[in-house]
Amino acid sequence: MTLAYPLDDHRAQVPAADITDLMDRVGVRMSFARNEEIYAQDDEVEFLYRVLSGSVRTIRLTSDGRRQVGDFYYAGDLFGLETGPDHRFSAEALSDCVVLVVKRSTVRSMAGDAVLDRAILQATHRELERAQAHLLLLGRKTAQEKVAAFLLAHAEACEADAIELAMGRQDMADYLGLTIETVSRMLTQLQSQDIVEFPSTRRFRVRKWERLEELAD
Length: 217
Hints:
It is elongated and about 55 Å long. A hairpin with a 5-residue loop joins β4 and β5 (67-74). The chain is of the alpha+beta class. Helices cover 40% and strands 25% of the residues. The longest helix has 26 residues, at 113-138. The chain has helices at 17-26, 104-111, 113-138, 143-156, 169-176, 180-192, 209-216, and strands at residues 28-32, 37-39, 47-53, 55-61, 67-74, 78-79, 90-93, 97-103, 163-164, 196-200, 203-206. The strands form three sheets. Strands 1-8-3-6 form a four-stranded antiparallel sheet.
């Protein structure tokens, strides 16, 4: 990526929040049904996206047909801000969702190169943090630790007593690098140890926070 201005130039110090303000003014709301594709892997980067409601997952298919879930995005999250010309992952609606969409060229013409470049840099920083956390998760020694860390992250991000998971077991497995059978078995083990409780398939409560944190750490 070539920046319009050096980072120490005052013109490049515009906060990325200006991107969201601009998107609110000129963006187009688009509705996507569950599992509907928003953009494809290797598509040219043309638009910026922000989740307004629902949830989105990014995935990449390997040459041998295996699927890797990159990350999950929820209301308020920006996604699709790439540093290169093409999308490395595809994006799909994890649930029925509404996404605000605006052309990058519109942002560039209305806000200037510095605003867009700064937003891309900040988004890249956030994505790097996500990728590092994901890499650490994939490198955990046991399947139970992976699943425990996944549940803990969602529990800490939710203030409610009962945590709703937007994704199913297969998405969890493809994110954690496990099989769906292993994920189901680890969830059963965590329930049998009374660490978590699943009143329904996608809703759980944490029963023993300290024990879940120990497994996740």
